[in-house]
Design a protein that fits this description.
It is a single chain. By secondary structure, this protein is mainly α. The protein has one domain. 74% of the residues lie in helices and 0% in strands. The chain is built from eight helices and no strands. The protein has helices at residues 6-23, 29-55, 64-83, 92-108, 122-156, 170-197, 206-228, 232-252. Helix 5 (122-156) runs antiparallel to helix 8 (232-252), helix 6 (170-197) packs parallel to helix 8 (232-252) and helix 7 packs antiparallel against helix 8.
Amino acid sequence: MAELLVWPALIAYGEAAFAYAGELRGAGRAGRLGIWGVRIGWLAQTALLLVQAVSSEGFPWATWAGALNLFSWLVVSAYLIWGCTPRYRMLGLAVMPVAAGLLLLAWAGGGTAIEQVSDAGAALAVHAGLMLAGFAAFTVAGGMAALYLWEERRLKRRDARVLRLRLPPLAALDRLAARVALVGFASLTAGIVVGLATLERDEVDAAMGVTAVVWLLYATVLLLRREVGLHGRRAAWSFLLGLLLVAIVLPITHFAA
């Protein structure tokens, strides 16, 4: 019965995505409906994860579907840190369809089931949690980058409607995307260290190679930002490229079973 909690979360996330789309017509009631949809969905999914944690033996999110369930929750959690602020609500237009889609895939793959048994140890749990938290931060940073590029394009076209949306300034979006990416990079680095500490030589595979590429990309972007001032559109496209790599590495990573 507890698995039924996935449906209130899916419905609320879907409502939020549609509400944010309606917000494009101008700031108002749609945005408020959207953020309440996010909150209600997050509470329902949080309850589901808690029931899974209590009812399962071992780490309940070790399968690919379980990882997607946890990943979608982390993405929404990261969004809520800023999404409750009216100026950052429109970020939900990029985040919430992704979160709803991931949760739907997790449900279809059995990742929202309650009675899951896993022999994963504490090291794998920490490793998986850190890696997924890093990927979630990169996803939110990518959403901020997409919002930056969209807002910049509208401003260059002198679109008066963009001024009614109460969007954050471009400079603020640029700084925040970089900070979120930095948090994700730190989490990913910690996850890799934990994973390497328990790695056997014969366990090296292609997924680890792609994960290393993701790490190198963000390390390079963040270093260039500090040393040569990589900002604005170039930084936004770099974060979107990183998001594309996350979309590639997540399905084939060692969270799969």
